[in-house]
Each structure stands twice: as structure tokens, then as C-alpha cells.
Amino acid sequence: MNVLVVGVGPHTRLNHLPALAAAQDTGLAGTVTGVDLSHNAAAVEYGTPDRPRRMPVVAVEPFPASRRELPGAVRRALETVVEQERIGAVVVATEPSVHLPYALWAIGRNLPVLLDKPLTVHPAASTDPAAAMAIADDFDTLLDAYRAGRQRDPRMVVSVLSQRRWHPAFRRVRELIGEVAEATNCPVTSIQSSHGDGQWRLPDELVDLGYHGFRDGYGKAAHSGYHHFDIVPWWLAAAERPGKELDEIEVHAACTRPSDFLAQLTAADHERLLPGFADRNPYTAQDLHRLAGFGEVDMFLNVAYRSHGRTLALGSHSLAHTTFSQRGDLHPALGGLYKGNGRIGQESHMVQQGPFQALHLHVLQTLHADGDGVDRRAAGGADHIELHVFRNDGLGLGWERHRVLGFDDLTWDSRGEVVLPTQRSARTCAVTDFLSYLAGRIPRAEMASDLADHRRPARLMAAAYLSMARREAGGGQPCPPVVLDFHPASAPVSHGGKALATLGAA
């Protein structure tokens, strides 16, 4: 299966290309061709020192993120590549604000798609309510196109690369939730999730940085927040039972923006901490405090998950760039600010399932990798993972009161391949499953992240941005929470003869 990779930036080079090289080694992938903007269209070297590879990159011209269809010139360039290279599958890994037109083009040609996360985002999503609402509309557009594609070809597939669905620890949490729900009929009743990536963006970088930056009116929630928007509903769904299906959410978000960060650590503070910063920084204090329209640096989200008017679960979701970091240098390492540069990951989830079960998952780093993406699991190394399982052992169900699962306990075998409890291993598994389905090696039912299963995360992301945008549009004053329906894509969007609140209704 020859693969077209649309977007060959740092994310693709760190994550997708190593997975595609491994797929080439096992015969799942044939040739790999890239597409990117003209300034980034040089051929890319990838693979390993003993098996180097070279990916040609076809140049296309940029177009406004507001477009829902590809410009004619871009479409013709892609069509030429598809014909000449006999492309059989497409990976969409561009800046997410242009995911929609590239994905619609591929689906329209009945080319299977591996779509990066988030599904879509729009400039000014955190400041303009209409841009926030469009995130939910985009999912409906993608799903309609996907359904039409499957009518033309039942083998057509769109898989979303939200890799925690393949991560052994996150899969184990879902299994444990399902076990207790089966035994007790109890849903998840509360969940506290947090993610911090230890970034320290300096004041001038807040202004200048485009890749995973803030100047387009969105930030952390689009950079990595989709992982949480996806995994939490995926866990909640494991405990849904007849009469206890989630159908509505109430959402309130609060965030900090670059101007808030510069109140926490001023330009003068940076000058004192980092010798040489004053000479490098071209912006005055007045310039830096006029960053209107920039996206969120950190975001905290409170959610009530409801069923038939009753709250079944409460959720708090904290997503932060501004957390403990090991950066101490004025200049970024080779490869820029996307990875490395002292980034220290901290992720935790605490799931309560009534009086029956508590799950504490902690994924922590104590060292940082300098952008090489190497997974290190030695004690005190870059990756530390623990899953604590607490169960009520007084019910006579044979449950153990407390057990701890570590790295080795959470490593599992998937069809003869060892999957480590790391993000890199999970990403590779996501690419492998996509290509394995296309090769006829696994059935559709075994695919973990079909597009049709992403209505809930898309709406949770849209609600988070809508809440931020409403507050910003209201001059920073408190605003009513966002309420919207939360049915999965396969379910009707009304019950009892009364439609649920639609997106944007307070």
C-alpha cells in the first residue's frame, strides 16, 4: 500500500515516519510520498542508520484555513501524485486548521485516511463563538462524507490517530471500568484528569512561534487537549448500561493566555533569569501586553456528564503548558521548541466508580529527551508509569483491595508484537492497525479509533472552545455554561419527544 503523507513537519518526522518505516519493513507499506508547502518541500531522510530512506516531498501553495474545499491547484497537484505514485492510503498530518479540506478530498476519492488529531480547529476558536461552534459542525461534515464513501466502497475507512486508545495502560483502565460496571451496573461517577507538558515559552517566542503556537487564536486544547477530550468519553462509555447512557454535557472552561503568562513571569523577570534575553527580545513591555486574540496557554475544564436530566459523572480536566520544566537555556535545541528543550510530561487520571472502584493512573517523566523521542524506562528515567487499582473487597466478589501495575505489567502482546506503555509505541500501533486493516489482516471490528466514534470528543472540544470564546467575547466576565447533546454518532439526538440542547444553547 503506497502512502501519501500530507504535512511533513516536526510531528510527522518524529512520529509518523518511524512508524511508516517499520510498516515498510514488515510489508504493510510500500512507497511513502510527502506533500507540504513550498518552503518545506525538501526531500526528507527517515528510517534508521542501517536502513536509511528518502521521502520525496511535493510542493503545494498555502490557502486560507476558512476554505472547506481544496483550491484547484492543490487538488490537481494531489491528483497527479495519486496517479503517478499509485497511492492507496492518505495520512493527513497538516496544521489542524486545514485538516478538513484535505480529509474531504481523500474521502471523496475513496482513499482510506489516517487523520491526525484534533479532527479540526479554526483560527480564533478561543475568542470567536462561531469559530468554536464550527468544530462540531466539521465533525458532522466529515461523518456525512465518510458514510457516503462507505456506501460507494464498504472497505473505506477513516481512522483517527488518537494514540491513547492503543496505549496499554489506557486500554487496561477501560477494561477495569467495564468489569466493575458489568458486576455492579455502576457508571463512572467522577474523573479528574490533568496533563502538563513542561513547556517554557519565552516572551518573544509567544509572539513569534507559529508551529504549536498561540497567535492563531487557539492553543493547548488544540495542541494536545484532544487526547483528553477523546480518552475520557471513551472510558465513560465502557460503563454505560441501559438507562444510563450519556446524552448531554454541561461545560465551563477557564484559561490563561500569553498576556496572563506575562503577568505571571514578566519580561523583566525573564531578563533577570536568562542573561542575554534583553538583547534578543525585540518587543517592548507594551508590545507584549497587547497580544489580543491569542489562544490559550493553559485551560481548566469542568464538565457534568448527564443522562436523562440526571448527572451521572462529574469531570475536571486540566490541560497546561505552564508546568514544571527543565529548560534553562535561552536558545532552543536543534529541532526547535516542539519537543525537547526541557519539556517534562506529567499526566494523571483519577477515576471513581461509585463505592466500588478507584483507578489512579500516573504517567510521569523525571528526565527529558532532547527532542529525539527515545522512550527511556529505567528507574528514574524519562518514563514512569503506574496504575493503582482500588476495589471494594467487602462485597464477596473476589476483588483485591489494592494492586499496583507498573511498566512491565502494562506491556502487552498484540498479534505477536510487543506494545510498550509509551506514547511512541502506541502511535506505531495506530499506524500498524490502519495498514493491517487495508491489507486484510484484521477486521474492521478490531480497529480502535474509527471516525464515527469521535462525535463525543469533537463536541467536548467544541464546547471547551465555545466556553472560552464566550467569556472572551464578554470582556472576561463569567458566562453561563455551555450545554449540548452528547449522544454518540450512532444514536438519535433526541429522546422523550424533546430535543436536547444544541451546541451554543446555554
Question: Can you walk me through this structure?
Answer:
With 506 residues, the protein is an alpha/beta fold. It has two domains: 115 residues, Rossmann fold, CATH 3.40.50.20; 304 residues, Dihydrodipicolinate Reductase, domain 2 (2-Layer Sandwich), CATH 3.30.360.10. Helices cover 33% and strands 23% of the residues. It contains 15 helices and 21 strands. The strands form five sheets. It has a nine-stranded mixed sheet. Strands 5-2-1-6-7-8 form a six-stranded parallel sheet, with helices on both faces. Helix 1 crosses helix 14, helix 5 packs parallel to helix 8 and helix 8 packs across helix 15. The longest helix has 24 residues. The protein starts with a strand and ends in a 7-residue tail after the last strand. The C terminus is likely disordered.
The end-to-end distance, rounded to whole angstroms, is 48 Å
Number of strands: 21
Oligomeric status of the shown chains? single chain
CATH class of the largest domain: Alpha Beta
Give the strand line-up of the largest sheet.
16-15-14-13-9-12-11-10-19
CATH topology of the largest domain: Dihydrodipicolinate Reductase, domain 2
The overall number of domains is: 2
Principal-axis shape: globular
Mean pLDDT: 90
